Amino acid sequence: MRSVTVLGATGSIGESAFDLLMRSGGPDAYRTVALTGAANVARLAEMARALRAEIAVTAIPGKLAELRDALAGSGIEAAAGRDAIAAAAARPADWTLSAIIGAAGLPPGLEVLRRGGTLALANKESLVAAGRLVMSEAQRNGARILPVDSEHSAIFQSLNGEDLDCVESVTITASGGAFRDWPIERLSRATVAEASCHPNWSMGQRITIDSASMFNKALEVIETHEFFGLDDRQIKVLVHPQSIVHAFVSHADGGSIAHMGAPDMRHAIGYALNWPKRAALPVPALDLARIGNLTFAAPDEKRWPALRLAREVIRAGGAAGAVLNAAKEQALDDFIAGHIGFTDMAAAVERALEMCAREEGFGTSPKGLDDVLAWDEMGRRNAACSAGAA
Ligand code: NAD
Ligand code: MG
């Protein structure tokens, strides 16, 4: 029986993974080692009971008693806190999904790589903040990373049997998010509620807002650079409102191989779960006759400055990715809290990148977790809304 761990089980990706595991036999088909979550311990306990997990861990120490109560009589261990999540990730499991949101996903992801495990990676932030470190830990320990971000799963699948050296470029698509068709002047007044509605994908709130600002695509451009080792000129973005073509790989002979499918994350999660085989998944079949038109347009970098910042970060190298990711997380917190406007997010990230570059330069790529965390802290500090006034 294969053993599995899901980090960030109670989120949007985690729920989709849970759905796939339960549909394919649940505890009769998989031995679940660990499930982790944060505030929603009732749901975490429910999932742990359904999958008969060995341990359930909440990120929040103050929620431990509640988690223990919810697991009473089940024989499932309960634990809490950052270190407990990392320790749960370090427990041997054949397949581990990292579906934690944000830089908090980096330490447990590294634990999986250090034990030579298979890491299905939805947590793009760990590649953005510490791509070199993540990829080298995987290589050093013979671990495997399977991309779960839909565009990166699409590239991975399109590259099957291809020689990466013959690839001219890869193109990832973006729906354009909630404000694709808004007049640019209106963007500065966009509210949190308006930014939290995605036209095609059902996702957590943070990534949905990042889709509206195109920061999600900016992270994905950097993720593509780090994971596939392509330089920024080889990575293209197209706005594709239907979200059917997720990515395509273009070769020197003029041919391109595209990956298509309904916008349902259970495809990419299920592909990583069953890899290298394919299994039937509860994803709607593609009905192109019904969809009728697939349209594409070059993104407007005035509307979405995040894309320009991603390219600058790739060219700057060193710790610039850690700063961009942290600054973006801070700016997003400030937007959600109502302290700054929608378009102020990109301005805050740009300011943080400039201030860090001026103070320290971006140095070399972070070699260890402490190094990443120091850059992360600097990125957050310089992006915080008070930094603008200082
Ligand atoms: P979400 O906010 O819905 O869920 C996040 C999960 O992480 C939850 O289980 C939450 O309890 C946990 N968590 C939150 N803060 C934590 C912390 N500090 N420490 C430990 N755990 C914490 O997020 P999501 O939309 O499911 O996204 C998860 C990851 O997958 C992100 O990296 C996102 O970029 C990536 N991703 C998501 C989608 C999607 O469709 N939602 C698509 C592609 C990639
Ligand atoms: Mg994506």
From TrEMBL:
Domain DXP reductoisomerase C-terminal positions: 260-381
For whether the record's keyword set contains Oxidoreductase, the answer is yes
Write down the EC number: 1.1.1.267
Identification of the protein by name? 1-deoxy-D-xylulose 5-phosphate reductoisomerase
Please provide, alphabetically and separated by semicolons, the GO molecular function terms listed in this UniProt record.
1-deoxy-D-xylulose-5-phosphate reductoisomerase activity
Instruction: Give the function comment from the record.
Output: Catalyzes the NADPH-dependent rearrangement and reduction of 1-deoxy-D-xylulose-5-phosphate (DXP) to 2-C-methyl-D-erythritol 4-phosphate (MEP).
Give residues annotated as binding NADPH: 10-13, 38, 40, 123, 125, 204
- Where the record annotates domain 1-deoxy-D-xylulose 5-phosphate reductoisomerase N-terminal, the positions are 4-131
Locate the coiled-coil region(s) and give their ranges.
none
Residue ranges of domain 1-deoxy-D-xylulose 5-phosphate reductoisomerase C-terminal in the record = 145-228
Q: Which SUPFAM superfamilies match?
A: 1-deoxy-D-xylulose-5-phosphate reductoisomerase, C-terminal domain, Glyceraldehyde-3-phosphate dehydrogenase-like, C-terminal domain, NAD(P)-binding Rossmann-fold domains
Q: Which residues bind 1-deoxy-D-xylulose 5-phosphate?
A: 124, 150-151, 175, 198, 211, 216-217, 220
Which cofactors is this protein said to need?
Mg(2+); Mn(2+)
- Sorted UniProt keywords: Isoprene biosynthesis, Magnesium, Manganese, Metal-binding, NADP, Oxidoreductase
